[in-house]
Hints:
The complex is a heterodimer of chains A (391) and B (242).
Chain A: H1 2-14, H2 17-56, E1 60-63, E2 79-80, H3 86-91, E3 94-104, E4 111-118, E5 142-146, H4 147-153, E6 160-166, E7 172-183, E8 194-198, H5 199-205, E9 211-212, E10 214-217, E11 229-232, H6 234-237, H7 239-277, H8 279-287, H9 292-328, E12 330-331, E13 346-347, H10 353-375, H11 377-380, H12 383-387
Parallel strand pairs in A: 4-8, 5-7
Antiparallel strand pairs in A: 1-10, 1-11, 2-9, 3-4, 3-6, 3-10, 6-7, 12-13
Chain B: H1 2-9, E1 10-23, E2 27-40, E3 44-48, H2 55-62, E4 70-75, E5 78-79, H3 85-95, E6 96-99, H4 111-121, H5 126-139, H6 155-167, E7 173-177, H7 185-202, E8 205-210, H8 213-216, E9 221-226, E10 229-235
Parallel strand pairs in B: 3-8, 3-9, 6-7, 7-8
Antiparallel strand pairs in B: 1-2, 1-4, 4-5, 9-10
Helix pairs in contact in B: 4-5, 4-6, 5-6, 6-7
Amino acid sequence: xxxxxxxxxxxxxxxxxxxxxxxxxxxxxxxxxxxxxxxxxxxxxxxxxxxxxxxxxxxxxxxxxxxxxxxxxxxxxxxxxxxxxxxxxxxxxxxxxxxxxxxxxxxxxxxxxxxxxxxxxxxxxxxxxxxxxxxxxxxxxxxxxxxxxxxxxxxxxxxxxxxxxxxxxxxxxxxxxxxxxxxxxxxxxxxxxxxxxxxxxxxxxxxxxxxxxxxxxxxxxxxxxxxxxxxxxxxxxxxxxxxxxxxxxxxxxxxxxxxxxxxxxxxxxxxxxxxxxxxxxxxxxxxxxxxxxxxxxxxxxxxxxxxxxxxxxxxxxxxxxxxxxxxxxxxxxxxxxxxxxxxxxxxxxxxxxxxxxxxxxxxxxxxxxxxxxxxxxxxxxxxxxxxxxxx
Amino acid sequence: xxxxxxxxxxxxxxxxxxxxxxxxxxxxxxxxxxxxxxxxxxxxxxxxxxxxxxxxxxxxxxxxxxxxxxxxxxxxxxxxxxxxxxxxxxxxxxxxxxxxxxxxxxxxxxxxxxxxxxxxxxxxxxxxxxxxxxxxxxxxxxxxxxxxxxxxxxxxxxxxxxxxxxxxxxxxxxxxxxxxxxxxxxxxxxxxxxxxxxxxxxxxxxxxxxxxxxxxxxxxxxxxxxxxxxxxxxxxxxxxxx
Lengths: 391, 242
């Protein structure tokens, strides 16, 4: 093996510029693959962390009738808070959320919204719910909305807007609410089309005293079965998010797969041409005492060595780049919140060892394969003809 | 008794060698039509004949690069027809040297690396490789070209490197296919004198395939091939008489 490696190294170095061009293109593919994967992993981690912080916490109990994709279930998907969690409500380890559909009329337009009631003093989610705490003498209905929602509705802090809803008896009610705060979040599912209100007020407004649609629990609270409520863990609640991220990853993968294919094509092409142009050399190797299998191994190793050199070259310029982006992050252009998944204004790529080792192995294996394919032809060569270059 | 001694010293023994090549959809072309020949250790002999007479085919079979269709060919006491490709490669690696018409030097290697190559295949240590390569290059007057690449050498120099590569492992048998075909007269004579010197000094057996008169004038034994058969086999001089 050492003998073959020595020969491979000599051949590659002897091939000069051709070798270095292949190695350079492959190294770009290698760095790009790791970078894109790291970016997606970083995005994935941030999106998951943000979603957990802003919406999910340690999991949720859903009212058995609650279906987030069917607004008509909202009226019936409310029930009294389970007694078994009384202590956890008091300590703030479980936060009830009441969800009711309504309509706001900003600037004379009508806009359907989800009214979400949450306790102003909650600490489970990152939502700035302290803004929902009214001074004792105020009769305002304070509400907070996300920046995306504010943009859509043309609302700013302290604006007054009319809100209409139906109470538990089906009676339409309307009242002005005050936008007590506009928060910026990277989690669109707590922002678009939603108005956050004080829970007790919303319960009163909708005649749903002590009722909620879902319960958000902290990580410390153990999961327990509750009649009429279904528990959804973090994994289940982030399933859609993960699927969305995966579908976006597939889209982005096409870019680097094309690049990798180009690099592999260059290696395949070099190998095929090599085997054609180096017939005499192959014949000479055999005449001097190498078996055809050894020559196949030599050519396969030669192609594979391109990948190893590419990894070394890629590491030289890739590692400083990776460190820079991992520390400083990559600014995302404005408007990326329209992606439909949580995306912050800066993404910090993540480089777990599994990703690096996996990519290295993947590129080496694929390169070995494309190097082996043309090298197989050597076995069929007649060495006597090859020596004279007559194939 | 004499026959027995001859047989013991023989390096190549060929009996009833026939070589056919497939041609077209069903036919065959017979390149060698029943060759019988014995080559002894230390001979400096040539297979001579016009193009298409079967010289190169014969040389390839002796060199275990091809197999006989019929008959038996023993090279260094090994039956070429029954050798596996691995055994044949081993035989070439350990006991044979090849010199080709177009030199067949490895273009990306230096002179040193080209000559070193057979020793690398034999897993010789770096120290031994260096010693033997430098010694061989010195015989052939190539010490000043150690770091040159084949593209930087003249035809004569390339062929001397090829001879050095063939000789560096001290083989028992060297097969040379038209070694002077790409050389001018002066270089041809230089090369032939070098090979003759090696033959006489190291007792290495040289078998040439040639139709070059210059080569023929150096041979001790000439085997004329015509249309795949031996037409004449004559000893033209004794060793050391040139």
